[in-house]
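Researcher: Here's the sequence for the chain we discussed earlier.
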Amino acid sequence: MSEATLSGIPRIGDRAPDFTAITTQGSLEFSKWQAGKWVILFSHPADFTPVCSTELTEFARRQSEFDALGTKLIGLSIDSIHSHLAWRENLRVILGAEIKYPMIADIDMNVSKLYGMLHPGASATATVRAVFLIDPKGIVRALVYYPLNVGRNIDEVKRLLVALQTADAHGCACPVNWVPGDKVIVPPPKTEDEVKERDSHKEYERKDFYLQKRALDSAKK
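Model: Thanks. This is the structure I predict for it:
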C-alpha cells in the first residue's frame, strides 16, 4: 500500500477528524455530538443492499448494549438522505428493527475521504466496511476494515470496545481471545526493581517475568 493511500486513513492514536454532515437526525457536528462519549463510526457500501441490511439492523437490535457502555453509534454511506430515510423505514417493516442511531448521508464523500473509507481497488462508488472506535477524548483507538462481501461481527466490535475500556480503567492489557471475566495481562516491567517487585505479588499467574496475569479485581495500576 502506498504512503499516499495510507495518509488518508486516520491511525491509532490520531485525533478523529471532525466534520459537519447531514444525517437522518439532522445536521450534526461530530465533535459536539460526541459529547465526551465513546463512538463507533461505521460505514456501509450502499443502502438497500443485503449484507448492509443485516449489519445495520443488528447494531439497532443491540444498541442498548452499547448505550450501557457509554458508547454512541453512527453509520455512514455515500447515499442521499432520502435514500437513508427510505431504507430505514424499509428495514423497520421487513426486519422489525428500528434504527435509532444517526446515519450520515455522505453524498459529497467528505467524511469518507477524511476517514479513508474509499478503496478504489474494491469499488469506485461505494465505501468499504470501516469501523472506527473513538474514545471520549476524540482519539482513534482502533480501526477495522472489512471487504464489501463480508459482514462484520458485532460481538467482536463490542468485545474490542470493552477490552479498550477495561485496559483504560485498570491499567492492564487484554490477551488473545479475552472476554470479560478472564484474567488480564500485567504490564511488562520497565526496570530491574519492577522485575523484583513482581515476585511479591502471589496473586499473579506467572509464566515468566515479562508474562504475568491477574484477575481483573486486582488489575490496578
